[in-house]
Every structure is written in C-alpha cells, then in structure tokens.
Amino acid sequence: MSILRSVTSSRRWRTFLRYAAGSLVATGCSEVVLVAGYGLLGLGPQAASLVAWVAGAVPNYLLNRRWAWRERDRPPVLRELLPYWVITLGTAALAIAATTAADGVVRHAVSDRGERSFLLGVVYLAAYGLVFVIKFVLFDGWVFSAKRSCSAAAAVPATESG
After folding, report:
1. What single string gives the DSSP state of each residue in the chain?
2. pLDDT surpassing 60 at residue 52
3. For residues 70 and 144, what is the distance between their CA atoms, to the nearest angstrom?
4. pLDDT tens digits, one per residue of 67-124
5. Would residue 63 be called left, alpha or beta, if left means φ above 0 and alpha means ψ between -120 and 50 degrees?
6. CA angle 27, 75, 95 (to 5 degrees)
7. Which range marks the domain in which residue 55 is found?
C-alpha cells in the first residue's frame, strides 16, 4: 500500500494521469470524427485522418496545458507553442501515414466500407498508442517544463562565496 501511495503522491504521476485522461477525451473525439468521416461521409483516409486529428488536437492542447500541466499564463510561442505543435504534427503525420497504408491494404481485401472504417479506427488508435508515452516525456520534460525549472531554481538557495 505504501508503494501505491508513494507513486500516486508524486507530481509526475498525477500529471501523467491527467495527461492520460485528457488524451482519452481527445482520442474519443478523433475516433468518432475519423470513423464518421471515412465511413459515413466517404472521405478518403488522408482527409478523414486530418479532420480527426484537428478534432482531437484542439481539446488535447487545452486539456494538456490547463489541466494536466496546470499552465494558466500566456503560452510562450518559441518555448511552448512551437515545440508542442511540432510534436503533435509529427504524430498526426504518423497517424495519417498509418491509416493511408492500412486503407491501401484493406481496400482490396475488405469490400464493406463499415468494416474498413473499423479497421482504420484501430490503426489510428495504434499509431497514437505507439507515441503516447513518448509524447508525455517530451511534453513533461521539454514543452511544459519551463515554469517548473524556474520554480525549482528559485527554491534552491544561492550559496555565498567568499
């Protein structure tokens, strides 16, 4: 029990749990849009993946910034926004490439568009699942770390030389 209490009391663990919850919300938004766009609206795999990414990216950023990492001030463009969106766009490219490749494979093997939609949804989830922890490490250690670094530096008393 003390191990569980120790793990769950750490700042990083609580941040990870909030990040995971926010990612679930964003993934749910993306999945619904992907399957609806591809299966119901007849979008191609690239367009459906791109629209799905946008549907998840906006709530994901807001949930990550405000809830997971508790950032409230104005985001610095070069320190936070640019790296965040570079990482996020990189994962979007991975998801789009994966769903496009999967569509190319299953298009000839599976005639029902509904079944192909399901398979594309699985591939899309797998692509994001692959980078889930990597994104957390990058966000926690790089993108949203500036405020913690400044707080930690301020907390360390300066030593006098003499």
Report:
1. -HHHHHHHTSHHHHHHHHHHHHHHHHHHHHHHHHHIIIIIS---HHHHHHHHHHHHHHHHHHIIIIIIS---SPPPIIIIIHHHHHHHHHHHHHHHHHHHHHHHHHHHH---HHHHHHHHHHHHHHHHHHHHHHHHHHIIIIIT-HHHHHHHHHHSPPPP--
2. yes
3. 9
4. 888 888 887 777 888 998 999 899 889 888 988 999 999 888 998 989 999 998 999 8
5. alpha
6. 25
7. 12-144
Cα distance between residue 74 and residue 72, in whole Å: 7
pTM, rounded to two decimals: 0.75
For residue 41, what are its two tokens? 């609206």
pLDDT in tens, 122-157: 998 898 888 888 899 998 888 887 655 444 444 444
Q: How many domains does the chain have?
A: 1
Residue among 64, 56, 58, 82 nearest 16 (CA): 64
Is residue 115 in a domain? yes
